[in-house]
Protein 1
Amino acid sequence: MGFLTRSKETAPCTVTISHRFEELSAHVKFNNGAVVNPGDSVLVHGAEIMAPYGEVVEEDRTATITRASKLEQLWTRATGDFEFMELCEFSFSEEVLS
Amino acid sequence: MNAQSPLHSADAATAEEAIAAQDALDTPMTSEKATEVAMQNTLLTPRFYTTDFDEMDAIDVSPVRADWDKLINQMKSDPNKGHFKKNEDWDTVDWDGMEPALKAEFIDFLISSCTAEFSGCVLYKEMKRRGSNADITTLFQLMARDEARHAGFINDALREAGIRVNLGFLTQQKKYTYFRPKFIYYATYLSEKIGYARYITIFRHLEAHPEHRFHPIFKWFREWCNDEFSHGEAFALLMKTDPKLTESFTNKLWIKFFLTAVYSTMWVRDHQRPLFHEALGVDVTWYGQEVFRKTSEISKQVFPFTLDIEHRRWRKNLDRMEAASRQIAAAKKRGGVGGMISRVVGMAKAATAFVSVLTIPAIHNAVPENPRLQPAY
């Protein structure tokens, strides 16, 4: 990892979406043991995934992990904590009605 | 625009029937499915987190083992398993008859609730997956279960209103942010406890004034917030495993910051939903103070002080923050140089008010040896 430079790597991943009455959840799991660090970005390739209502969908995909530079990582470590408000139901959500 | 099927999930007697009714919408291409496609899309945008997993794995719950095991076993027994089902109490909602402005605020409330539950689920699942301390991963697994269940329940209510969540974020670039473990404890503890206080206050109010219950989801709030209460209990115990977390000078400052930030955000946000509170028959200022009172009382189990919410600078500056937030929103909309200046001025006003609230002397509290509480409101 460079101080100012980013690097990229690809990783196989499994995306699991539960779109059911009893559970709404979505998770991405890397299958090669890749670990995401503060400031890294992840892009899952392919078309948008959405399970039909009442179903759980699991898809194997490829993801690109963009590794943050050391500087970015330090910055994220120092400031990430302030995004905690999102856990509150009354947070200012960024949802977009389209 | 509500999707109609022969048996609407709202009329179903059991969860299975409700699911079957909703499933019917998703099977072959029918006119119902066309309606589904036409549903309004709302994009959920949760954040993704990492933390110091080694530090989290190093937690030793031995000092609170007896209470810990009791709480985890209670959560494992899943007392609310059967609660999140639509039964005969789920009245049909007259979405079309609802005043549009109220509908917009209420839907905004449902969406932000759904996002919060969903984000909690993402965070907890990540902690569960990457941690290796069995006590901690079990807790996160159980909490992820509850949050996903709550999110599913709200999602169903949104679908009835013709709103479909969009999980498109999954295939968009996601940046992973960072939470220090201790901040996860403070923030999660507070968000769960204040969530409990908010839901139970509305539930008790509507129990006394059922004529204001304009949507059946409020009937589910009591058991729902008991989940939030238990989650908060677990974090209270976690904070008890290391006295420094609540007793060191720096950490006390952090706790004060978290309390002030959470309380003032809630105040500002709630005041932006006037019609929603009016429909509930709730005075939003009374509601805010009441939720703070309950949360402060509960937080005495673990925090060495409470905020002085009766201080003369308290409400005055919360109101200033709210006014500043309106100014910022209006300036953002306006754009241009004038908008930019107005926005910066608004932000300065908000920051000044925040500092004024943050510097109100706190009220000392002698923390009890054993933190465990039962939901009592």
Protein 2
Amino acid sequence: MKTEDLLEMLEKDELREPRAGQVLWRWLIPALILSALAMAGILGVRFPMEKTLMTPEIAPKFYLPLLLGVIAMPIAVKFARPLARVRLSWAWVFPAIGLLLLGYAFVTTPESQRMMDFRGKTILPCLLSIPLFSAPILVAVLTSLRQGAVIAPQRAGVAAGLAAGGLGTAIYALHCTEDSPLFYVTWYGAGIAITVIAGALLGRVLLRW
Amino acid sequence: MIDNEWMAMMHDRQADWTRLLRAANAGDTRAYGLFLQAVTPVLRSVVRARGAGLPEADCEDVVQEVLLAIHLKRHTWREDEPAAPWCYAIARHKVVDAFRKRGRRIHLPVEDFAEMLPAAPEADPTEKADIETFLSHLEPRAADLVRAIGLEGKSIAETGDAMDMSEGAVRVMLHRSLKKLAALRERLIEI
């Protein structure tokens, strides 16, 4: 094909693809609904919800990951634009807050009970559920990013993993009955880390163009 | 040596490309054509300079792949951004990718694009990819449409009349055909 002929066609093609941010909603809302329904259907919501949402020591397990997800989502989508300057270093604030909570819980928990709280009863379900409920959200973000021109696929995957891991964990927190920060900071953190690693690996594969 | 004249020229390139691409976004197809015409020789220079050992025909194929990428990803450019660095970012990514597919690793700093002068105008550069192969991958109507617009240089309206299609349908089919072309090239099918 002559380059001239190609240019002729490109010039006349006035249709533009939608931006990643526009596509995101199309995928994200069904993904959130799917994860929430799966959580409610398979595991069940813990009632009364006020206990999770309003108790000072327990509430962070829902609000912290939610905040992480809400902050990371628009940042992840920025990776669609080659010239967007995207920083991820802010994300370290979350492990830092987690450590503070952990330290607080360590000090306020009687020594005899620390190990019991830390282990809880549901490490494995927690480590499986968080990546599982995050997965549809991760797929939604990565699918939207494919619409863009991602120059740094691995970092974009990390951002997508933070967004998905945050929201997926918030969903799981509505079921989980482990209320000590010794448990939820550690194991939720691990669940989110697994999601972030999955995001980085998938990003390298899926965000090529 | 970097003299003032050269600096001024590079500065002009930035301003010109941005102006043209903004006009193109506003629906000025002529400006878009000029933009592509301005970008092509710069791409050609970079690809040839970096394509050490790659035959000229393959180089031209790489240039075409980059042009397709710039075209199909132009929604990732925001009007408040300068167009040239955006083009360089897309082109760099795509050139490295194109060489990797052809079994070559290249180091390509993005500055190469900014500093590269356009290749001197010349008679049609040869290219390897054959349009007939591309057409054979399209459904018959899309192939006719690509032939009319790409080879015969017909307008959207003329093509619509000739093929008894609405202009909207012609636009959609053209766009889909270009996406298909990019996908085929991605799999390194020589067309």
Protein 3
Amino acid sequence: MTDATPQRATEPGVARDGPARRGRGGDEGEGMDYLVSLPRRVVTVYLPLLVFLFVLLFPFYWMVITTFKSNEELYDFKDFSPFWVVHPTLHNLHKLFFETHYPIWLWNTMVVSVVATFLSLFCAVCAGYAIERLRFKGSRLVGMAIFLAYLVPPSILFIPLSTMVFSYGLFDSKFALILTYPTFLIPFCTWLLMGYFRSIPYELEECALIDGATRLQILVKIILPLAVPGLISAGIFAFTLSWNEFIYALTFISSTTNKTVPVGVVTELVEGDVYHWGSLMAGALMGSLPVAVLYSFFVEYYVSSMTGAVKE
Amino acid sequence: MKFTRRDVLQTGAGLAAGAVGSRLIGSGSAFADDMMSFKPEKGAKLRLLRWRRFVQGDETAWVANTKKFTEKTGVEVEINSESWEDVRPKAAVAANVGDGPDVILGWFDDPHQYPDKLVPLTDLAEYLGKKYGGWYPVCERYGKRGDEWIGLPLGAAGACTVYRQSWVQDAGFETFPTDTEGFLKCAKALKAKGHPIGMALGNAVGDGNSWLHTILWGFGGKMVDDKNKVVMNSPETIQALEYVKELYETFVPGTLSWLDSNNNKAFLAGDVAATINGISIYYAAKTSDDPKMKELAKDIYHVNMPQGPVGKPTELNLFTQAMVFKYSKYPNAAKEYLRFMWEADQYMPWQQAAIGYITQPLRAYEKNPVWTEDPKHTPYRDCVKNMLWNGYSGELGYASAAAMADYIVVNMFAEVCAGDRSPKEAAERAAKRSERYYRV
């Protein structure tokens, strides 16, 4: 942050702000120098960061400690603090992995999410490129219509979709989800990729056209390599939405062995009004890990594509 | 679904006990001549969607009975289960789409939302009623549309007042009172001794609806009259609201956000001296490996939910019934399956394996030993007998289901307890909300 000071000082806007800053923070008060003093940094940087960290991480912490708590500790607030574990146990994890179909649900969720994501990305790339670059009559309207389709809530769509799923004989199979998830994934991915494609200069395509490249070659060899951050971002988003999806998975799947994690966990670990909290939290924790790992690997691409898309 | 040898042995023991029980009520071979039967279609296969087990014994016994049915008739039955709150949307989808499970065990007024999609079960229901001492009146309300049975009542997951005997006696009461006035006095005395009570005031489908409807009706208040006219904004409703407001002063903090599981947790943690719930709290304590919980189980007692100034039971309990859909290719097989499962030889062992979670819809099953082998089970025996129906005293249908799904009654009480509205304002608002549904 201190490195930024000399650069910023040369910018006209910052120079104009100079006196005002000096008025507040003394004669060195330029750029972000006001963060130099420790108390200010604590108040403006560290404290808000800590608050954010607490808000974001506390649910994970709660999931972790509940996963390793026994029922005795879970229900006894008088002898045990609710904020940490005194006698950790693996019982909840054992119950989750060996007394339910959790590993199968994880596998189902993975298959459905990965296939639906790739399918949606393929469709979104074709749609996004066509709308942004082919510029056919009504392309703007199509782009807008696709975006509006994203706004239709699944709770309205699931009944007509059920009719189709039953008609095609897909009920209670992974294909029921693989083919219905793109109904909300494609609009979002298309919208995101349209923004990203717009940020890629036309000149590159024009050069390729002059060199005799076809549209397909341009898409595959020029646009897609440049759009990798956008693709990753759309992919992560699509994967996360598929991973957490509940209502279609609940409606279109019946057999225990075909269920996904969000539905399976609720079905198996809630018996009437008795919630098996330890195993439920273990299920939520284990279920959130793949998404967390995915984010941690691609977070830079993700951020860059989001800012790239939004800029346009 | 897999079975261990232990499951089979346990179920065998349950079935044997049930067979003894069925003789106790005079069924079994005595009814051999009095047996109705539906001839399953050739090559019939059935799919059943039911709510997820409340206790393991329920599912094990249900599956064992189904296996017996398959051995006897050759009709295979695939059983799928969903979390109990998720069965209703799935049933609605099946009804609207015209495809799905042949038989669904739904809740409350489900059959009345799509009556034209269901196979009439009048012959079967009349046969069972005649054979097993008749259906309780509320079952006829829930099961019949006009003169036709469209659902086959399976029973209700009943709710009672669950309390700590030692604390109640310490507060000067022998048992927990079963009238609203005594209930309030006891709650105040417990609070004074440092033992608050607590009931769900959040959007709890089971517990919230059960106890608050019971109180509302107990004071003579109701959402609609016999002609489906909204009469929520009445002096009786306001009295009920004032009562609950006063009762709320004796609650442990946080009940406004309680859902179905919260009171279980609070009771087992020793945070409350009493609550209104199914038998699950007692069962959890009794079957726990923790000695402290076992000790707690000895101190847990039950009485029926309180009666209000109207002077008769006005309970609402989680009511479940079977529906056979018209799209099923095998309606006869479905009816035969239901007949088989509702017969004493199957129903009683299943009810016993479910350790009293489900109260019977047929009077003869009152004699099931499950209600007397542990006297603490006994109050749950009368839950269906004491029941009124959702949307009392109007018709069952779209409006009654939608009003419950929108938590109009629960929210009305919660608004008063939270101090957001006066009883008068809350009743007015609830009446307006109800009119939106009953106008359709």
Protein 4
Amino acid sequence: MATQAAHASHAHAHAHTVKRYKGLMDWLTTVDHKKIGILYLLAGFIFFIVGGLEAILIRIQLMKPMNDFVAADTFNELITMHGTTMIFLAAMPMLFALMNAVVPLQIGARDVAFPFLNALGFWTFFFGGVLLNISWFVGEVPDAGWTSYVPLAGPTFNGTHGVDYYVIGLQIAGIGTLLGGINFMATIINMRAPGMSFMRMPMFTWAIFVTSILIVFAFPALTVGLVALMFDRLFQANFFETGSGGNTVLWEHVFWIFGHPEVYILILPAFGVISEVVSTFSRKRLFGYSSMVFALVLIAFLGFMVWAHHMFTTGLGPVANALFSIATMLIAVPTGVKIFNWLFTLWGGSIKFTTASLFAIGFIPTFVLGGVTGVMLASAPADYQYHDTYFVVAHFHYVIVGGLILGIFAGLHYWWPKMFGRMLNEGLGKLTFWTFFIGFHLTFFVQHFLGLLGMPRRVWTYLPNQGFDTMNLISSIGAFLMGIGTIVFVINVIVTWAKPRNAEADAWEDGRSLEWSIPSPPPEYNFKQLPLVRGSDAWWKEKREGKTEMTPAEPLGPIHMPSPSILPFIMSVGLFVAGFGFMYHIYWLAGLGILITFACMFLRSVFDDHGFHIDPEEEVHA
Amino acid sequence: MSSNHSVSGEEARRHKVEGPQKHIVAFILSLALTIIAFAAVAAGDINTTFTYIILVLMAIIQVFVQLAFWMHMKDRGHLFPIICIVAGVFVVFMMVIMAVYWLWW
Amino acid sequence: MSAHGHVEGQLPHEPEKATLEGRNKILGFWIFLGAEVVLFGTLFSAFIALRHQVLDGPHASELFELPTVFAATMILLTSSLMSVFAVQAMHKNQVKSMIWWLVLTVLLGLSFLVLEIVEFNTYVSEGHRMNTSAFSSSFYTLVGFHGGHVLFGVLWISLLIAQIFKKGLTVVTAPKIYLSAIYWHFIDVVWVFIFTVVYLMGKVG
């Protein structure tokens, strides 16, 4: 009784009246990383469906020769929006969903370093994505490819507002991504639980750490590239206007200085997911932990020195081409280290074939295929043959869909109980895997041969009897199968939703890292008491010693929480409004949008966020 | 992290004694480096390549001085700031090579 | 030299690092500066690539006036020193002198901006506009981005001065002061490269 009263008075002493919202307002104002993770997942998955539909339309058009299902200019818009949507608005947000849901739990933290920025990052991404997709309704859609090469994307050859939507939408979404990268770097450096040294961090956390570094150092280049293109298009600047002394190759360089690290931003988190899933379901320690860490860092380092392998045919001269060829081939070494380590982790393990582990095991050979074609493309002279053919399309879909998307599916099935407190249905999950996996290989395996036969990429249609007909039909059938796999996943989610929320804390019983030591889903404050980490695979270690919970590193007490805020939402709306103002040269509107954003920053700076306190003991009694 | 947590009395005293002298030294150093750079250009009759080398050298030294003294990068607990700046400079280094040697090839 | 320690009601020696929030902010800000290095680096490499593409517009060596640039450089350098003194005053818990140093920082920053606006105006009247050539576009974008950063810094530090008046120096306001100083030095560091690469090298040709 006495302690009760003491706690109550303690909580009272810290009582600041913080308004706590319910329902929709709760989701608009949340700064809780778990809820932001769910928002990222929801938004990312919606964009995944949009990008997927665009892909299906592309494959319907290419199903038979001389098809006229869509017009040629619509086809250009479809391929542009498919690529842009899938990379920036589907894949990256779903990765951010996993990192938000899992990383703070894995390092034993109550929240990320900057909860407010976390929410701001989500909303800027969301409004950037919405702005980009509004182009469909306006009828002026970006159509210069996802790389938006000038001069095709420049004002001379692209007079409509299509590319403006690309430039401004990505600029706004890019702010969100950069904020996320800064946030997770700071979180992982500063917020680890006592005893969690860098070399005790779970491999997924390591992957996210390295990914965040890549985001921080790659995205500013994109920002500048987009600013330059925007100035060219809106204010008659001459960065890429050859007639006025500009240089079109500059765009290619700047885009790929960002673009190649971006590829690793996409794949490294998938590597992290696979490491976790493979090790959990083999019920073995991850083989070669330190070499895995080293490989991650090396890939990130080399990732900044290979951008020009996207530009071999531009003509950079023999020295540059040779350097970039060699650097690119070098990346195969650390990647190979990772592949072998996963295989050795599986070796001799008592493997459980859950949906998550099927996706992970399917990932390994698929990614190897994508990697092998990558080394083929790295050879500059050979690249002159492959360049701009379906061989390239097959290659990057093998690494991005066969690598990243399989990784995301593995991660979603694995962490679903932790995020939502419900186990996904295993039967439907396996159906998702087999349809998606077979569909994927049907779609893209034949595209290697289409490319080697000489079918160029980004063409609207092709003539019959060139040997392209059958393989294109097979490819389209595969695409439908992938679509079915995705629908089965959606059905699985809906079916799971109807079931009781009864997932165990250690949902797979073989959990190794800290997230499995707390309830599913975790309480708002994650850890009642911060855990003491006594080795790598912290939770596994405690379980092996017969413990049922982690050793606490602090006494029980009221927990400080950041207050919810609507400002991130309004700030993003401000940027969204300003984007339209700039695009249509309505400068009062642009000014208004910028003003809204800065006013929110002003408010955030002036009014201190005192937060509020939760007493875990009281919650139990209540 | 925890290293920042408890500030020892000794360190506090050392910091207190330091005063503005070293910052004024850094300022005078920056001033001198700037003047050398401007003078090299104003003189006008020096070989162009040699002037470029002087300019770049002066700029790099000045940046080191400012980062170390004014942005406290020489102080303890600045491992990650150093890593961040060095990584950024590494990326920029690649880009400058691109702009100078490969872009107009 | 009074004894220094964690006496109740007194600020710790380095108030900006006293709380986890403060330490997070400092680390996060350094990471942000790493990103800024790449941002300015990309602008620089675009400028370096395009600086000889002047077309019919004036060449850098005809355009730039060394005395103006030298004055701007001195102003920014001095203002950087002022903000160092502000942080030193903060560490000694001398709020009043800290505010004075901050005010001087802002005033010098403002005069830098005025000088830059006048300079840009002159260039425009000499036929050196955003759309004149690739050189002019990359020049205005690079130097303009830096100017925008100076403007943001001036507004930010002014807001912080007002906050110090209202809230005093606390473990909440101290990290903000510290970060604004780091930001201000960073702007000065970027300017070192701007006057070297843009102005002096432009003058040399």
